[in-house]
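Chain A, query sequence.
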Amino acid sequence: MHTPEQIHGTILVVDQGDQLAAERAMLQGVGFTVLTADSAEQGLAITREKRPDLVLSEVMLEKPDAGFVLGYRIKHDPELAAIPVVLLSSVFTKTGYVFDLSSPEARQWIKADAYIERPITGERLEARLRQVMHKHE
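Chain A, predicted structure.
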């Protein structure tokens, strides 16, 4: 059985509740140094201070669109814009609305390098993060 090599770097996870602890444990298990925040404002402050290699944020935080706002603020800050942002949420299961970053229209207002719909397995999350990080090397 082939074991993928560990990912190295620092990832900021912006989420709340049990999801935050689970994501932190999984990401540390594959080699990331993990920083955490439980709000978009805290996430932005940590991003500015620590400059993580990737930001992984839930969409629905203190406000239903807080993750989108966080991604927008990171991508519109010239000092932070190169940091990959991955958004994840269960928006589809809650609303039926699908976010698709493949269209130019969606990319105009969703400022993220990837969007992942929950529920997600650790293996799928790891694979998607590897893909995004590899693209930004």
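The chain has one domain: 25-53+69-135. The domain at 25-53+69-135 is CATH 3.40.50.2300 (Rossmann fold).
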